Amino acid sequence: MDRPRHLAAVEKALRRVPVVALLGPRQIGKTTLALTLARRHGRPATRFDLEDPEDLRQLADAKLALSGLRGLVVLDEIQRRPELFPVLRVLADRRPAPARFLVLGSASPELLRQSSESLAGRIHYHELTPFGPDETGAGRAQRLWQRGGFPRAFLARSDAECAAWRRDFIRTYLERDVPQLGLRLAAETLYRFWSMLAHYHGQIWGSSEFARSFGMSDVTVRRYLDLLSSLFLVRQLAPWHENLGKRLVKSPKVYIRDTGLLHQLLGLETQAALLRHPKLGASWEGYALAAVETRLGARRGESFFYATHGGAELDLLVVRGRRRLGFEFKRTVAPELTKSMRIALADLRLERLDVIHAGEHSFPLAERVRAVPLARILQDIRPID
């Protein structure tokens, strides 16, 4: 499947800066997108796979190997050789620049730290996310929600094949990929933690409860949460902290980033099992929230949730400049305006509030409030200017 939105974003970034980091979890399609980009680039392209011993031998003297290349240079699995970042800084500063560098990798904390320190002002980060409704089409939305957006899971020939791939992915990630990133954590402990997070999907993080369950300190369980977040496996949605004169919730909400992995961690391998599960609504909320953010073009640091200890809530607040857009997610065909929505509309001074629902039609609920079906967000919701 072509991914025009991501291709266009990476091409634009490569015209602007000498180094672009394409980040995301394993098997999300980074290499496929890089090869597609290389074919479209119209200039020479060279790829190094840093898990290939032959390619590693060629890079024994990295500056010598890379300095003579022209066009696009792709360095795959860059987390395997973070010592390349200082070399890239030297090569990126050449004028005129004979080559642009596209580095692919999982976003380990060490990778992000070293790249930002070595390439400050020279690098752009782009996250390759799972497939979204804009890429798969509205007609396959149910399949996308159930299976998730990892290419091999979504495109599997059957639900059984999809579930087998997801099981293998989870096991391989914990047993091989996490240790390769230099993170020494017991695979079974991390699996239990990840599975427990799945049962809290869409809820506000409570470190004390997790700490008691695992017999660890609050600091340790928070480190586990941050690890899975840095690997693009878990999402932390920050609370809105404007001074409203109210007692606001200050902990993030947690979501398993891909609904397919969420369902696998919950043991839900078929649509029938999903529809009977108590996390059905939370799963749909996370899926819809990600779809809305993608449609808006929300950037890092622009998305929040709003909750007060008095009970007022808003599932998603997107802030860019002076614009404030609010969203509620209701898996129903007949959403209604609630007191909580009215409070959020006034307290946050929202430009508008959209209630995303599971029905078929858009209709107004009140001034500046409308109901929008998830199936129509591409038509009824415009990207933020």
Salient structural properties:
single chain, 385 residues, alpha/beta, Rossmann fold, 2 domains, 18 helices
Largest sheet, spatial ordering of strands: 9-10-11-12-14-13
Give the number of DSSP strands: 14
How would you characterize the largest beta sheet? Answer: 6 strands, mixed
What's the N-to-C terminus distance?
27 Å
The percent range for helix content is 40-55%
Return Rg in Å: 22 Å
Whole-number total of structural domains = 2
What fraction of the residues are assigned to beta strands by DSSP?
A: 15-25%
Mean pLDDT, nearest integer? 92
| Unreliable stretches | none
- Summed up, the helix count is 18
Given helix and strand content, the structural type is: alpha/beta
Name the shape in a single word.
Answer: globular
How does this structure look, described?
There is one protein chain. The chain folds into two domains: 124 residues, Rossmann fold (3-Layer(aba) Sandwich); 248 residues, no CATH class. Strand 9 and strand 10 form a beta hairpin. The mean pLDDT is 92. The radius of gyration is 22 Å and the shape is globular. It is built from 18 helices and 14 strands. The chain has 385 residues and is of the alpha/beta class. The chain has a six-stranded mixed β-sheet with strand order 9-10-11-12-14-13. It has a five-stranded parallel β-sheet with strand order 2-3-4-1-5, sandwiched between helices.
